[in-house]
Amino acid sequence: MEANVVIIGAGVIGLAVAAEIAKDFDDVFVLERNPKFGQETSSRNSEVIHAGIYYPANSLKARLCVEGKRLLYGLCRDKQIPHRQCGKLIVATNEEEDRQLEDILARARANGVDDIERLTQKQAQEMEPEIKAISALFSASTGIIDSHRLMAYLEGSAKNNGVNFVYKTRVERTEKLAAHNYRVDILNPDGEAYSFNTRYLINCAGLEADRIASSLGIDIAANHYEQHFWKGEYFAVSGKSNRLNTLVYPVPLPNNVGLGVHATIDLNGQIKLGPNAKYITDRRYDYTVDASGQSAFFESASRFLPFLRFEDLHPAMAGIRPKLQKPGDAVRDFIIREETDKGCPGAVNLLGIESPGLTSSLSIARYVRNLIR
Q: Are 40 and 32 in contact (CB under 8 A)?
């Protein structure tokens, strides 16, 4: 079989790329090892539409988040995808954190986030009467989204434009045969091996993206393409629904390892705490939540949510983020590259697509489309 384009992975990024690529190409195939779309990182996150606050100026994360936020809100309005532009408070609970808010504010404005403002203690508590903070930043364009409905729309849009989705199919390896000619070896749902060729290969494989890049003959160590698994656990808060109007975040962890244990609300007003950030040395797919972490979650969140009680918390879910950094490493940007300079014309690798990947999904799709046009 011959294909024009093969996209590996049907998370939110693969779905968005498929819907966008279908505007230019016929014979587009999406290969996904799970039974349906979005079964890994795309469905195990905070479902937040980020504003573009934390990322280094001119980075892909900053540029694609700010653009992606605008595109995502527009799509949600046009297609009735459930969402809410609820805003977010980043709170300081001591003087050191208050000083850090100035740096966050400056970075956000450098990234083009023009609706973020500094709040006094009184202003913050007028907005959220039940929080504890000496000051805060308010990001008006932060919001929440039903990520499953978003992904369902993207899959439907891609299918309507002729994209073929092949689920329960694992990509075993890829091989460059010639310029714009790649062989893809798969195991189909019955466990049978099968191979076919494609002109363009787009690697949206998420947690396995570095494995796919390596199978193309790219030295992932020399090119700093190695991904590292970071687990993020969440605890749900019972009996406190509709106590918050906005998302409430602490000052982020160093090097953007994570944004700290924060309080998000879903579209029904339910509060969820998390995620933490645990480095997984052996790259296990472990989605269990360590119940013994309840004390650490409570201690972290109760600093700015004094209404919490220890017994309100219970384990909810966990996700795994494919980061390009290990503990102690400096912050890393997204890698989204067409690989002609590595001898693989027509191949595009996307690595380290963690937060703000959901927010940036539509802008990432446009970026990839421009790379291969």
A: no
